[in-house]
Design brief:
It contains 3 helices and 25 strands. It is globular, with a radius of gyration of 19 Å. It is mainly beta. The strands form 2 sheets. The protein has a 17-stranded parallel sheet that branches. It has an 8-stranded parallel sheet with strand order 4-7-10-13-16-19-22-24. It has 2 domains: about 1-95, no CATH class; about 110-278, no CATH class.
Length: about 280
């Protein structure tokens, strides 16, 4: 507790303000996952390497469970805040409405968003070193366990994901950058995918809540993809205003029968689909 005394004195008037009102308490890499979990309101991560093991008390064994209405951010320049997991279990878990996650490096552990997450902003992060497996929630860098509404996933980097499977020609095991099962008003733009088994995988549902409308999957760059850069699944759906445009795909990694820049089984006839391939 000694490391908090000076900072706590400076912030004493704020310590009892709820997260939505913007309480600030910095965390650093010397703290354990349990200390970080107990201290963060607005999670300012100082530079350093955070070794975060699975926490059995949190949902899905996540190392950290995030609060709604809070911004979790690392340094915008210089040394990074690197969250290092042990594989399979999420580094962060969020369920609810309104969260910002930015300028963090996720190393060997996904970000898990529960079904019905709304107003999530996930920008300027790095996701790397997540190997393949048979459970999507364990092997997808940003995994949504259902649908997501009114959210933004942009300016992130995904690299070295699915490394074991990237040299295999099989479809039983997998890994990916972004995976979800429905959306309404979702922006996925200006992300970079490099040496990844699969880039973006989306299943469009027929529900009113997740109608697949208002989606913009634009200006993403894919290089070294072993399976599909963008895969959109769904039947008897016709999302209104879905854009898949101005994306760039090149240098397929050991291409095989399931290697595509863009694949869709959903009926997106009223939508815009444009891909730049090389």
């Amino acid at each position: 507790m000694t490391r908090f005394r000076l900072f706590a004195c400076l912030l004493a008037p704020l310590l009892f303000i709820g997260p939505a009102q913007g309480a600030v308490l910095k965390v650093n890499a010397r703290m354990s996952a349990a200390e970080i979990q107990s201290k963060i309101n607005r999670g300012d991560f100082a530079p350093g390497i955070y070794n975060l093991a699975s926490n059995g008390s949190n949902s899905n064994g996540a190392a950290l469970r995030l609060a709604a209405g809070v911004t979790y951010t690392g340094p915008r320049s210089g040394a990074t805040a690197r969250l290092v997991g042990t594989g399979r279990y999420p580094l962060m878990y969020f369920s609810g409405r309104r969260v910002i996650i930015e300028y963090l490096t996720f190393d060997n552990g996904p970000l898990f968003l529960e079904n019905q997450v709304t107003n999530a902003t996930i920008d300027h992060n790095v996701f790397e070193n997540i190997d393949c497996g048979s459970v999507a929630s364990q092997t997808t860098a940003i995994f949504v366990a259902g649908g997501i509404n009114d959210s933004d996933i942009s300016y992130n980097a995904f690299q070295n994901i699915g490394q074991t499977c990237n040299s295999q020609y099989q479809d039983k095991l997998g890994a990916g950058g972004i995976g979800l099962y429905g959306f309404h008003n979702l922006t996925i733009t200006h992300n970079a995918f490099n040496t990844v088994y699969e880039g973006i995988g989306i299943s469009i549902s027929n529900s009113d809540e997740y109608d697949g409308s208002g989606g913009k999957i634009n200006y993403n760059v894919f290089s070294g993809i072993h399976r599909m850069a963008i895969e959109i699944l769904g039947t008897n759906t016709n999302p209104s205003g879905l854009e898949v445009a101005y994306n760039h795909y090149s240098n397929a990694l050991l291409p095989w029968a399931y290697t595509f820049g863009f694949s869709s089984s959903a009926q997106i006839t009223t939508s815009l689909a444009m891909f730049l391939m090389r």
